[in-house]
Amino acid sequence: MMKKNTKEHEIDIKSWLFKFKNKWYFFLAFALISLAGAYVFVKTSNSLYEFKSTLLLGDQQTGSRKAQELLNILDVPSKGIKVEDEIGLIKSAEMVKRALQRLDFSVSYYKVTDHWLNSFGELVVQEQYNEAPFIVKLDTSSTQLVDIPIEIKVLNDKQYQITIDAEDVKRYDFRTHSSSGLVPELSLVKVHYFGQPYKDDNFSFTLLRDSSAADINGKKHYFVVNSMKSQVAIQQSKLEVKPIDRESRVLELKSKGSIPEKELAFLNTLMEEYVAKDLEEKNQNGHKTIEFIDSQLATLTDSLRKSKQAISSFRSANKISNIGTQSTIGSQQLSQLQTERARLVVEKQNFESLLEQFRGEDALAQAVSPAAAAGVNNAVLSNLFNQLTELNREKAGYRVTATQDNPRLQVLESKILNTRNAIVSNLKNVISSTNNNLRDVNRRIGEVETTLARLPESERVLADLQSESEFVDKKYSYLLEKRAEASIALATNTTDKKVIDRASLASSGPVNVKPKMIYMLALIIGLIIPAAMIVLISNVDNTIQGKNDLANVSNIPFLGVIAHGTKNDKLAVKNNPRSAIAESFRSIRINLQYLMADQDYKVVGVTSSVSGEGKTFTSVNLSTELAMSGKRTVLIESDMRKPTFNKYFNTDNAAGLSSYLTDGISLEDVVQKTEIENLDIISSGPIPDNAIQLLERPKMRELIESLKDKYDHIVIDTPPIGFVSEYFILMKHMDTNIYVVKHRFTNKDMLQQINELYASKRIKNLYTVINDLDYGKTYEYGYKKKASYYYV
């Protein structure tokens, strides 16, 4: 059973540092590559600077508050403001578009520098603003191809070469700011003259040479014609608007760009357009009210002139200087009633005009200003107008980012519709009430007129003329008063928005390209990647990496390690007794003698999991070391399926273990002397068909017993236990068992079978040996590299 070590998941920092040090060239290579990439990034990236400005939203009042209180045009409470809605309006595509239409950003200029990186392509490119060696004058009455680079190469003071190579290019109409088609492929190289219009099916512009620019003959520049849609998208992506504090009405506008002049101009223009649009919307309804009153005054002016002239003519014709007391009283009553009727008529016309507006197609978008409601003295209607204005503003904020299906937007539209219906309903009620009052006034006028009819005809006619003249005069005076009030309200209209700080540079340096930080980050990444690769490979690798690794998966006692050597070191103990391998076997022999000091370990079995782990190499060199230490040793090759002793000894395999077990050959005939003193071997002999059955015969035990009488040690090279079952037959003859695992070759899972044998105590005196361990590739034995001068 595999051992469960409680320290299996602990991090051995020294071990990892050793692994990293052993692969130092990986770190160097990745660090150099990463730093090279950082250098290219720094040189090819445009430096971005941050800019900021501040804007005050105000308290949402329309016009001068002092003038409003003085004129008492509309008695409504102060309205609040939603900062989120205003932020949405500022960042909206329509507002950004208004700002860009005032600026000349339709053409962007770029320069390909002389940097050596551009020999690999156009990597280092700089945008130019007011510094380009030429100016592009677009013919906006013609369609243009947009959003593609148009290369310009200056040939001399008079000529330039235009080069275009692009696919799927959009046609753009600057008059309507809309796309008008697509060009699938375009390839063009043409020479043209500065100052002369260039026009074809795709372009229409004039290139003007800047005489103050340095000599740029032969150098590469290009420009891009920007569509309004792309300009708006770029500026929206860079624009950030937020209040300076949670409850503050002061907004901070931020933007990033590589050309300070462009970004400063954009932020300032955007704020100016936002303030101007706010005042423009507030003045719009005031102008409509004045226009309505002016149209009424134009009609009344002629009526007033005619009524005055009629009275004068009548007095002259009838020689009437004054009216009697009764006529005077009746006339006064009639005048008062007619004044009342005039007031009701004007109010009715005002209400009917408002009703007509709200019945129009654009009714849902209307918001009535105080100037528009100059003649409305109805508190309910005033509050409804205020609610509709606030709802329309909130809807405008939501429409910036929300779609038509947005639930919140649908709720707002429903509220706007309900408010509009309430206004229409109230206007109808007020009109109906006014009509009732008019009927009552008309009835009373009729009664007075009937009374006056009894007066002398001349006096009655004069009274009628005076009443008509007074009616027209009162109505005219009333409208003049209201026009003056509306004009004052319009003249005192001011926006509640105010630019506090104009745009300025917010950062002392670039916010994106910081060479020191980028190089440091690149170096860290260059060190992290190889470290991560080493960790990943180490964790994926399931082979035995060293003594600690072996101890984590097995409880079998550890005997020692065998140093790494070359393929020519087959008999390293004999041929190179001062080598690291020879020293390894010397250490294993001493450890074995120490561990078995009070036991008889004449028969030593050597096995492994699979072929290739060094089982035979270990048994041969351990036998050689035992023999060279003065012990009479015999080495038996029991792997009769795959004999390999001929690679180590100059032996004859015609007679061997298989011959002894089958043909009855004597022991003296199968034991072969070697060139090593005290070491004899018994090769496997001819390969039999029934190796397992041969090893199960009693003669195998007889062989072992006979050899025990003649030798101090018997070393048996057994087949690997992972492939065949011979080892389980032979292990009953063994006093000591050595299990060989190969460094960075033996899979940990292969030890499960030998672990089970050890745990069940079916095998005795079992020890493990790590073969082919490279001291330079393991932290546990790294110190042995320093002892290389002890070895030859």
TrEMBL record:
Q: What is this protein called?
A: non-specific protein-tyrosine kinase
Q: Which UniProt keywords apply?
A: ATP-binding, Kinase, Membrane, Nucleotide-binding, Transferase, Transmembrane, Transmembrane helix, Tyrosine-protein kinase
Provide the GO MF annotations for this entry.
Answer: ATP binding; identical protein binding; non-membrane spanning protein tyrosine kinase activity
Entry GO CC: plasma membrane
Q: Does the keyword Transmembrane helix apply?
A: yes
Q: What is its EC number?
A: 2.7.10.2
- Return the similarity comment: Belongs to the CpsD/CapB family.
Which reaction is the catalytic activity of this chain? L-tyrosyl-[protein] + ATP = O-phospho-L-tyrosyl-[protein] + ADP + H(+)
Which spans are transmembrane here? 24-42, 517-537
Q: What SUPFAM superfamilies would the database entry show?
A: P-loop containing nucleoside triphosphate hydrolases
Enzyme superclass (EC) = transferase
Q: Which domain of life is it from?
A: Bacteria
Record's Pfam families? AAA_31 (PF13614)
- Residues forming the AAA domain are 602-730
